[in-house]
Amino acid sequence: MKGREAGIGLFFDLDHFKRINDTYGHLVGDDLLRLFAKALAHVSSKYDDIFPYRLHGDEFFVFCEGHDALFAQQFEMDLQDQVDVLMESVDLDIAFGASMGYGLYRKGQDVDDFIKEADYSMYETKIAKKQQAKR
After folding, report:
1. Per-residue model confidence as pLDDT tens digits over 13-70
2. Are 63 and 9 in contact (CB under 8 A)?
3. How far is it, in rounded angstroms, from Cα 2 to Cα 108?
4. Maximum CA pair distance of the chain?
5. By the 8 A CB rule, do 64 and 72 touch?
């Protein structure tokens, strides 16, 4: 991140991934990880100054240099659309997606603090989804 300009970081965590692994097995889980990564790479390539990373497990991070929160919403929608397209080729009847949170990056900011902010935001999204599902 040294030398990067301000932007936004998007933190993605796959929804219900443990349940998918437990129900369908780790090979299917691995296939879905690759599917999500492929969708992420595809959508990222459509824009300038987008840098996607897999952090660990089912967590992904995207730095969007020079972009803002409105772009984050568009990126999330584009990504889910691409995941849905790729899921058409998978012989599983499951809803598959990810929860996203974001943090704003200011030039020179501590990278760990920046990623933690996006991670915290993602967990707020997961909690909101769970509460909505209970209704």
Report:
1. 999 999 999 999 999 999 999 999 999 999 999 999 999 999 999 999 999 999 999 9
2. yes
3. 7
4. 46
5. yes
* pTM (global) more than 0.70: yes
Cα separations in angstroms, 115 against 12, 62, 109, 133: 11, 10, 10, 27
> Domain spans of the chain?
7-134
Would you put residue 16 in left (φ > 0), alpha (ψ -120 to 50) or beta? left
The two beta strands, 7-14 and 59-65, are: antiparallel
* 100 CB burial (10 A radius; 0-12, 13-18, 19+): buried
- The strand ranges marked E within 57-91 are 59-65
Residue 1 has pLDDT above 80, yes or no: no
C-alpha separations of 54 from 47, 63, 107 in Å: 18, 11, 22
Q: Which CATH superfamily groups domain 7-134?
A: Reverse transcriptase/Diguanylate cyclase domain (3.30.70.270)
Alpha carbon distance 10, 57 (integer Å):
16
